[in-house]
Amino acid sequence: MQPLVITAAVTGSLTSTEQTPHLPVTLDEIADAAVTSWQAGAAIIHLHARDDSGVPTQDPEIYRRLVARIRDKGCEAILNISTGSAGGRAQLDERLGCLELAPEVATLDCGSMNFGDERVFENPMTFLRRAAARMRELGVLPELEVFDTGMIENARRLIDEGLIAPPGMWQLCLGVRGGAPADHATVAHMLGRLPAGAHWSLLGIGRHQLELNLASLAWGGHVRTGLEDNVYYLPRQLATSNAQLVNRVTRIAAEIGRPIATPDQARELLGLRGVAAPVS
Ligand code: ZN
After folding, report:
1. pLDDT-derived band at 280, boundaries 50, 70, 90
2. pTM, whole model, 2 decimals?
3. CA 124 to chain centre
4. Could you tell me the distance, in angstroms and rounded to a whole number, from the CA of residue 165 to the centre of ligand 1?
5. CA of 147 to the centre of ligand 1 (A)
6. Residue 69's domain is classified under what CATH number?
């Protein structure tokens, strides 16, 4: 069985400490969550930056400090930096400043959508081309975040245009209000639209997190877990940490004989270049 690459999405930009007191929001808390999630078996840590008061930001300087703090603590995981909007706070091009840190992986949200009841998450094709081109120049692998089937087609256009190398690293993001629902028929349809050989992972929002973790394990995909997507361990029982959620995935994987990819095994699988020179 192909090794399982676990991504821990440790803080996000929409989850708040009002939802759970266990959410890491300071630089040190986020760095500690990265370390403990990596120790629990996550090969990839998906990061959002937050300022000193815990407010999400796309400020590249804060990302630089966060990455340095994580590496100072000895964490060898692959770091996957968000190019999202910090909860609607960052304009399109401000979102891309963090790419200059040349992380091994960065997200690319492959289309625009309603996001909840009030926000539109804006990702026009012209922006996607700029982002993909800069990632290619800097040797950053885009994680293709797709929230519905149309976004898969957008990403395939970028592949056809030579801006993204096939087959791509795909994250199917399911259960957001405004995006594709987290049901098996939808997942099966979306998986059928991916290029041959695609590296894929599923994420489910809220109660869908665990069921899509299980579907990925059963269907041979990769897994994303963490407090960004879901704050509960069981119904009405908050998860106490990101590592607790990662640990459950590693236990289930062990039970079904699915080996867990180390960061270096994940680098080999995904064709990553390895950790960049230390951020100074
Ligand atoms: Zn994110």
Report:
1. very low
2. 0.97
3. 20
4. 22
5. 12
6. 3.20.20.70
